[in-house]
Amino acid sequence: PFFVLQTKKKSEMKNKYDTLFKHQVPNSMDGIIIFGKDDDYLKPQSYNKITDIENEIWADLYNNVSELQKKYASKEFLDGLKKLSIPENNFPDFKLISRELFKASKWELVSVAGFLTEELFFDLNAQRKFPVTDIIRKSPRFDEKYHGEIIVNDEGYTPEPDIFHDVQGHIPFLANKEYSNFLHKVGILGDKIIKNELGLSKDLVDHNLKRLQNFAWWTYEFGLLKKQNVNATNDIDYEIYGSGILSSQSEILNIVNCAKNKSDQSVFLPYDIDEIILTSFNYSNIQDRYYVIDSMSSLYQSFDDNQHLFFYEG
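RE: above sequence
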């Protein structure tokens, strides 16, 4: 799951450093349940209670993106799929995948109740633990959780990270040692920002967390990679390494159509860490831009070399 700032409602956030951000859009998380470290956030998977309806939803979502992933996903993702027991037609078993993941990269899955605050999210990542949810979009359990709330809940998108986004978007990458080490470093950096050893104001700490949130969004959630000439079936100039893209048929097709000049809905921009950390994003719509890295190793190096950017002192 992605992480959110503890203030919970962006409409209530007033931070004088927000003027530094560009591309700001209304981005409310109103109605979404958010869990912090003091909440009962752990929710073990009850695998024997999964319903036929939920398995059918998983199978439909899997079938919608599977061939697109094989064609356009990066090598790291495709290699990860081969190492993990992610089924096509039914819910994945967290315990089984967690064992396989630990063998591959020393990461493990933690079954949680939903969206997490940034403090909890980074604390788990710093321990090489990745939070996953057992709820899926379009299901009766999802409807029950948000009874009385108006939450987008369709096959293409929901702001609540669900099991399909978590497992079929993120987890295959974590079977890659270099990628998993990178995400571990992101977690450690997030912890450092929150611990605030520099004694910065709360506004500055929140601002720096939003810089890191922007970085995460435009890279491992919605990032693109220059084609590495690994997959001969790929007929565009890019490969996908953003988990938010790979778990969304609509987002993948948008990239393909824009890359083939069949649509001008979105633009492709060169990766620039100084720009992306100050570029806000939209939870609710197809992205209007994608930043393109030269290689995965160049992304890792850029993050290592520029950690000072996440400790802005005003």
